[in-house]
Automatic annotation (TrEMBL):
Keyword Transcription attributed: no
Pfam family, one: IL8
Name the UniProt record assigns to this protein: C-C motif chemokine
Cellular compartment(s): Secreted
Keyword Disulfide bond assigned: yes
Family: Belongs to the intercrine beta (chemokine CC) family.
GO biological process terms on file: immune response
GO CC, alphabetical: extracellular space
Matching SUPFAM superfamilies: Interleukin 8-like chemokines (SSF54117)
Principal localisation: secreted
Organism whose genome encodes this protein: Poecilia latipinna (sailfin molly)
Range of residues in the leader sequence: 1-27
Origin superkingdom: Eukaryota
Record-annotated Chemokine interleukin-8-like domain positions: 27-86
Length: 107
């Protein structure tokens, strides 16, 4: 009887440890403050959006720049310009690829 209680207690402790690790690792990936530096659009490789609806405390645009992540205030004009610029560059890149594909199909 005592060994069953000990096993149950050990299993419960292991479960709680795993749960606390999962919860803490989720919040560890959140932006906690914004950069003060404006990023040039051409440095931005991609971006993602963080909202307060998850476990994060602030809304943010997370720019992916040369293997690192930079958190920016989504209400700032420069942040909006950088996102728009990045999207326009992607559209231009896609149009260029489509034009090349059409040209190759003609040959």
């Amino acid at each position: 009887m005592e060994s069953n209680k000990a096993r149950l207690f050990a299993a419960l402790c292991a479960f709680l440890i795993v749960c606390s690790f999962v919860c803490s690792s989720d919040s560890a990936s959140c932006c906690t403050r914004y950069t003060k530096k404006k990023l040039p659009c051409l440095l931005v490789k991609n971006y993602s959006i963080q909202t307060i609806h998850g476990s994060c405390d602030i809304n943010a645009i997370i720019f992916h720049v040369n293997g690192r992540f930079v958190c920016a205030d989504p209400t700032k004009a420069w942040t909006k310009r950088a996102v728009t610029c990045h999207i326009l560059l992607l559209v231009k890149e896609t149009e260029t690829e489509e034009a090349r594909s059409r040209e190759n199909n003609r040959l």
